[in-house]
Design goal:
This protein has about 900 residues and is of the alpha+beta class. The two termini are about 50 Å apart. The model has no long low-confidence stretch (mean pLDDT about 95). The structure holds beta-D-glucopyranose. Beta-D-glucopyranose binds near residues 476 and 609.
Length: about 900
């Protein structure tokens, strides 16, 4: 037996010992751990047991696959609890010991498994009014201790559950946000330890949440329904073998006379502690004045098991307490986050504390009423708390979250002390996988800010910002997906979001701007509804699955999404050639059959957000661009994305064994590329509009014939010079800018842009004290005025350059199966180090420069290989797993 290799990080469907999953053939991944160099797996074996009985033995399978190995045993039933182990061969004869056992449990796989009914706790309601959060409870008896108990729960709205006075699970904002009208997720909890023989009490609180609370820019309400409801089923096996099911049914009692008087994701919470219901979570509480909950049907069709990482409360911050020039008391938590403030207070009954959460202070250092875009309405983000008055009171809001760094404190009884407050960051709890540090502190801060913008915008759904809109803007996710996958393990997060994207797609394949789409019913913000199918946004349907496949090597996400990818691609196909009337009737078109031919393959219709928020593109100019693109479309951008998607579709079809389709996509990519070049590239390589983004996009998407490429590069360099080496791109091309320069051998310019400190640049924001990534380049101008949100991750894609080029870690095959190490020192850095937790284990690269010598140390995980390119231009070295060190001389 091979004692040098062991297995760790055993995960099933990306989770450690998941509970209540519904994948019909769950997939296993493991990592090899060894001190020995150059280790490759040559074969694997998995055994699955259920109650000590062998369910599946794969036998020895000669393969190096160590990620996403599908279960191959008999079909799984509901509630099935399985354990699995693996062992691997790393040579022809030597086999590792069996790994320790890991487990998984299936959820309720059939609709009939649900015996419980949906219950509605409210009486007559006014759909337009804000309503108090309903409380629900039910008692039951157990004649024996519980041996095993599972609770399956979901809601229309948000739910929080309590069993015998203890909170069920640590998840927050359950059941999460999905395309509720087609997919509603339920969660599974192990509640064995919360039960007791004798009387038990189960309690629930419901919040408006995404179901009927304010959503998106126009704060649309009741997007999925006007009434809240709870569905829950607890299945208990007693020590004596008896089985008991306690579900939501007509025996539940409810009240709306609890302390949460209003709860809204965007607005905040109004809480009156005088209305608390002491003991309601415990058995024996007198709920005589509560009313029976109403059974409202048995709809289970939309139910699916929750598959993305749970939203949890994570980092905590204690504030500095400031007094503004105007006398405001302001809590400064030092970091812009998405989450809430919890506090403890002591004071007279009826005293009212108010917290107003904001990202920034105004010019004079005061908290100003938060402006929303277009002033559509005031962004509240307020918490109102009325004291009980009987000693120390502790409070944390529940069904809401705020995007903030500061909070204005009003009505505090007595002198506020920092230790009475705590800001808690709340987000989808994904492991941090990327680490980066270097000798330039500003770059380290930039990296940290991007991570915080990711945390601030990954609350079950990838949002644009955690304040103004909080919406699943597809373009933002498209731009950021690859960078996000380096920073955090978001494979399950995105694979689940992509299911919602597919579910939200229109019959003609159009992808809505927002996923989940609050406007799925065709009501609400006309501008957002009428602009579906935008290049760079709708392309998330193709580009995000591809980014996930690249980052995690999981082909299943492409299989899962293929129909959706194709539907969106076909939409573009049909749109191609629908020439805009202005161009159709232009003499240039009428007189040239060649032009008519090429217009037939180009995208010339539809609204496109365009490059979006290039420097200077702020109020009111942003609206001119918007109207211009509404009237004239943006063919040079839309056709570029069509070509790029055709390339990705061709590669996807190849992978999924669809050679005919692949050939067709490839032919189309070629035809679009040629037409694009003829239509948009002038003989001197210049493009219209003559902007950095146009050149970056054309180079990144390979739109220029080889002969013209150097000319385009030259034009890009001219644009950079004109901008005095300031970044000039917006949402779509910023992430490609430095990479394009590096690929063209102009690392020096990439460094110049990266280290630029005046506006517009990444470090400008750092110098202005930003703790997250801004939506616009100048969210804070020199004169203190500003425009845009302070927490939009899109421009944070620059971290890819830090990993790929500075630390020099690049994937050479999907999932980092093969790795390229290619550090490119520059920018005056004396050292840098980066690491990424890949599906195979950690890859790291760290370098330092001493007396003109470059020293590099890399670690390559087992079961992968790497090519290493030193910055002196010497030959590439091919290495296996383990630690490797090199030195070389740098040119002076
Ligand atoms: C959002 C963006 C979004 C954009 C569409 C904005 O209001 O905040 O992040 O992608 O609209 O261009």
């Amino acid at each position: 037996m091979n004692r040098d290799v062991s297995l760790s990080s055993l995960v099933c469907e990306y989770q450690h010992n998941p509970l209540g999953i519904d994948a019909p053939r769950p997939r296993f991944s493991w990592q090899l751990v060894t001190d020995r160099p150059d280790i490759m797996q040559t074969a694997w074996q998995v055994r699955v047991h259920e109650d000590g009985r062998l369910l599946w033995d794969s036998g020895r399978v000669n393969s190096d696959q160590s990620t996403h190995v599908p279960y191959g045993g008999p079909p799984l039933r509901s509630r099935q609890r399985c354990s699995w182990r693996a062992r691997v061969w790393t040579g022809s004869v030597s086999v590792s010991a069996w790994s320790r056992a890991a487990g998984w449990e299936t959820g309720l796989l059939q609709e009939e498994d649900w015996q419980a009914d949906w219950i509605d706790p409210e009486g007559e309601i006014d759909p337009r009014a804000f309503k108090p959060a309903p409380f629900l409870r039910r008692e039951f008896r157990l004649d024996a201790p519980a041996r095993r108990a599972r609770l399956y729960a979901t809601a229309q709205g948000l739910y929080e559950l309590w069993l015998n006075g203890r909170r069920v699970g640590e998840r927050w904002m359950t059941p999460g946000w999905s395309a509720y009208h087609t997919r509603l997720e339920y969660q599974t909890y192990d509640v064995t330890h919360l039960l007791q023989p004798g009387d038990n009490a189960l309690g629930a609180i419901l919040g408006d949440g995404w179901w009927r609370g304010k959503l998106s820019l126009d704060s649309k309400r009741n997007s999925y329904g006007e009434r809240l409801a709870l569905l829950l089923q607890m299945e208990i096996t007693l020590a004596d073998g008896n089985r008991i099911v306690v579900g939501s049914d007509e025996q539940w009692r409810a009240t709306s006379e609890g302390p949460i008087r209003k709860s809204d994701w965007k607005d905040g919470e109004v809480y009156d502690a005088r209305m608390e219901l002491p003991g309601w979570r415990l058995p024996g509480f007198d709920d005589g004045d509560w009313h029976p909950a109403r059974v409202v049907g048995r709809d289970r069709e939309r139910l699916v098991a929750s598959s993305s990482p749970p939203v949890r409360r994570r980092e905590r911050f204690t504030p500095r307490i400031l007094t503004s020039p105007g006398g405001q008391t302001i809590l400064d938590f030092g970091q812009n986050i998405s989450g809430h403030v919890q506090f403890r207070a002591q004071g007279p009954a009826g005293a009212q504390v108010k917290l107003t959460h904001v990202e920034t202070l105004g010019k004079t250092g005061e908290v100003e009423p938060a402006q929303t875009f277009l002033n559509m309405e005031r962004l509240l983000q307020e918490v109102h708390y009325t004291l009980r008055g009987d000693g120390e009171e502790r409070y944390a809001p529940r069904f809401t979250s705020q995007g903030f760094r500061y909070a204005l404190l009003e009505g505090w009884p007595g002198e506020p002390r920092p230790e009475d407050f705590e800001a808690v960051a709340i987000y989808s709890d994904m492991a941090t996988t990327g680490r980066f540090a270097c000798s330039n502190e500003a770059l380290n801060r930039l990296h940290g800010n991007v991570l915080w913008s990711m945390k601030g915008n990954f609350m079950d759904v990838p949002t644009d910002c955690p304040t103004r809109e909080r919406a699943g803007w597809t373009g933002d996710a498209q731009v950021f997906a690859r960078a996000g996958a380096t920073l955090m393990d978001c494979a399950a997060f995105f694979s689940r979001w992509l299911r919602d994207l597919a579910a939200e797609q229109k019959a003609d394949g159009a992808v809505p701007n927002l996923v989940p789409n609050p406007y799925h019913d065709g009501k609400g913000m006309f501008l957002v509804r009428a602009t579906e199918g935008s290049a760079g946004w709708a392309d998330a349907a193709i580009m995000v699955p591809w980014a996930m496949y690249q980052s995690f090597g999981d082909r299943a996400v492409l299989e899962q999404q293929y129909d959706s990818m194709r539907a969106w691609y076909d939409f573009m196909r049909r749109r191609a050639g629908k020439t805009h009337w202005l161009r159709r009737l232009s003499p240039r078109t009428l007189l040239s059959p060649a032009r008519r031919r090429r217009l037939r393959v180009l995208q010339d219709r539809g609204y496109h957000w365009g490059e979006w928020l290039e420097p200077g593109d702020s109020f009111p100019w942003i609206f001119f661009g918007l109207v211009k693109r509404l009237l004239f479309s943006a063919p040079y951008i839309a056709s570029a994305y069509h070509k790029h998607c055709a390339d990705l579709m061709a590669q996807t079809a190849d992978l999924l064994n669809r050679p005919d389709e692949a050939r067709q996509f490839r032919d189309e990519a070629k035809a679009i590329g040629e037409a694009w070049a003829e239509e948009f590239i002038a003989a001197d390589g210049s493009l219209k509009p003559d902007r950095q983004a146009s050149y970056v996009r054309a180079l990144a998407f390979d739109l220029a014939p080889a002969a013209l490429r150097p000319k385009l590069v030259k034009q890009l360099l001219r644009k950079l010079e004109e901008a005095d080496h300031h970044v000039g791109t917006g949402f779509l091309s910023t992430g490609m800018l430095l990479e394009v320069l590096a690929a063209e051998g102009r690392n020096d310019l990439a460094w110049k842009l990266l280290l630029q400190e005046s506006n517009p640049s990444w470090l400008y924001a750092i110098n202005k004290g930003a703790t997250t990534i801004w939506e616009t380049w100048d969210a804070v101008r020199e004169d203190g005025s500003g425009f845009g949100s302070h927490n939009h991750y899109s421009k944070g894609v620059v971290v890819e350059f830090l990993y790929r080029r500075v630390a020099g870690i690049e994937l050479a095959a999907p999932g980092y199966r093969r790795i390229r190490i290619q550090p490119t020192p520059g920018g005056g850095l004396t050292w840098a180090e980066g690491s990424i937790q890949t599906p195979y284990g950690e890859v790291s690269s760290s370098w330092r420069i001493e007396d003109g010598d470059f020293h590099l140390e890399v670690r390559i995980p087992p079961n992968t290989r790497a090519e290493v390119q030193l910055p002196d231009g010497s030959a590439t070295r091919a290495v296996g797993s383990g630690r490797h060190c090199w030195s070389c001389r740098l040119e002076a």
